[in-house]
Amino acid sequence: MSNIINFTFENLPVRIVDRLGNPWFLANDVCDILEIQNTSDAIKSLDDDEKAKLEVSPSFNLGLDYRVKEINIINESGLYILILRSRKAMQKGTVQYNFRKWVTSEVLPTIRRTGSYHVKADRATAAQLQGIKDKVHRLSFCFRKTGSASNEMYNLLRVKLSLRNIADISENQIPQAHAILDAITPHCEAYGDYRREIDEYALSTIIRQGLPFTPHLKRDLRKIGCEVGSRPDWVALAKLI
Fold first, then answer.
1. What is d(CA 94, CA 89) in angstroms, rounded to the nearest whole number?
2. What is the count of structural domains for the chain?
3. Is the pTM of this model over 0.70?
4. Which of 140, 161, 195, 205 has the fewest beta carbons closer than 10 A?
5. Which uninterrupted H or E stretch holds 113?
6. pLDDT digits (tens, 9 = 90+) for 162-192
7. In angstroms, how far is the first alpha carbon of the chain from the final one?
C-alpha cells in the first residue's frame, strides 16, 4: 500500500505519495501552488512514466471528498517539468519560487536521505482548536445523537491527521482539519434537513391526525427512510496509516 506524507506550504496542502520508496506528488496540489488552472491539461503532455492515477483508499490521510475515487499523481520528473513551465517559479520573492526552492533543496533531499520528511510544527493555539470544536459542535446538531456525532467527527479527524488526541493537533494541520469537516458539512446538513422532514411527517400523522404508531406507520417511515451503514472501525483504520 502507498504511504501518504501530509504537510503544508504557506497554508496550502502538499501531499506526497510514497510508492516503493519514490515520492509522487498530488498533481492538484502542485498546480494550485504554481497557479496552473487546469491540472488535467497540465499533465496531459507528461510522459507515461511521469504521471499516474492512484486509487483512493479510505485509509489514506488526504482530506478529500468521499466521492473522489482516484487522483492524479506525478513523480519528480513530472514535478520539475511543471515547475519549469511556471514563470513565477523562476522569479525571486514569489510563492512559486519559494516552493521550488523548498521542494528541490529541502523536501526531496531529506526524503532521499531519511525516507521521510517531517515538519516541526507548533501546537495549535487555543483559539484555533476552539474553531475546530465549534464546527464539530455545530455539525453535531444535524443528528439526534449529538454526542455520538461529535465523537465520530473527532475520530475522523484523529485518523486522517494521525493524532492520538485532537488536542495534539498542530498549527499547520488546522487548515486540513477544517477542509475535512467542510467536506462532510453539506452531507451532514442534508441529513439534518431530511431528519426534520421525517419528524414533520411523524408529528403530522401521530399528533395532528391522531393516528397510533402502528406497524403500518412504521412501515411508511421505513419506506422514506434510508439504510444506515455499519460504524467504521476507527482503531483498525488508524493502524493502516
1. 7
2. 2
3. no
4. 195
5. helix 108-114
6. 788 898 898 888 999 999 999 999 999 998 8
7. 10
